[in-house]
Amino acid sequence: MSRLDASDLDLLTSAFRPDDRAIDAFRRWSRGVDWQGRIDDGAYELLPAVHRNLRGLGHDDPLLPRFKGVARKAWIENQRARAEMPSRLFSGAPLPLLALPPTSLLFVGGTVVPHRRSLRLATRCEDAARTIAELRERNWRPVGLRLPPAAWLEGYVRATDHLAMRRGADERLSLTWRLETWFGSRSGATWANAESVSPDRTSILVPRPTDALEFALRQPVPDRPLSWLANALLLASQPIDWAALRAILAAEPPGTEQAALIPVLDEILEPTGAALGDVRASGSPAAERTAASPFGEPARWAAGAWRRFRGSFGASTPWPRIAGQVPGYVVGRWHVARHRPAETPWTSTDAG
Q1: Considering only CA atoms, which of 205, 207, 257, 214 is closest in space to residue 232?
Q2: Pick from 44, 132, 116, 41: nearest CA to 81
């Protein structure tokens, strides 16, 4: 079970709780910080949110001008990241991409939390092969594996769920084309309800606020759950359909660690009237129910793999086209069977 220490809880309370408890929490938290030394990254990223919340409560403190400087720097960095995103991703005609949290926070008005360099993106399954090819044109390379030739790439993406990519030493992204991993049968509606933000010439979409928060709540919880809670609280500041989200989580509960942290969210959000209530854990988070499972019993695996492969093509698809993608599909299934957890978007350390 991931644990939230008292200092991190005070930091989150000071950044997001909209009443005087935030001021008391800030005083406790700030007394434990060495302001002449280095502030850890998790706390530093929340300083703009602390500044905004405390100023909104009418609180003044000698530290707040320093936090305002961090907020201004974050705002400039975020504007630059938004402006550079099209050239980072595409060299030719853009394809629709869905920015998933925390990347979607770049496009949420008023968000000043510094943007993480790693991008979380989704593409439609039918666009995945072309999207990967376009990213490779921009010098993005797969992490830890070799992709099949371009002629077999369509078969490969039909066998897998995601791809981790890197460009240079410090640019990373995770691309998924299986939103059903998190949204199940609602994945089509997630695409349909997404809002276009389209910076420059690239078609970028963001999920509606309720879908974005559900996605964040289903992510794995790191050993230090500060970033998990911070992402959820940032997203919770948007217009959320709380009744719909409660119903979804009741029908499809999150994992044990996620459910254990939801009371913390409710406590911080309590003055706003927003609440998720008693969410019972499923014991297996949705993020572990991958669309492409690794090898199991050979006969059952072969039957299931074939059904998945054949069903991924339309009924009118010519057989020569289907047969031509079998080699790529086999390569993809082999990569899934190797099961590299460090490369999956839901276990990446910077997935938020």
Answers
A1: 214
A2: 116
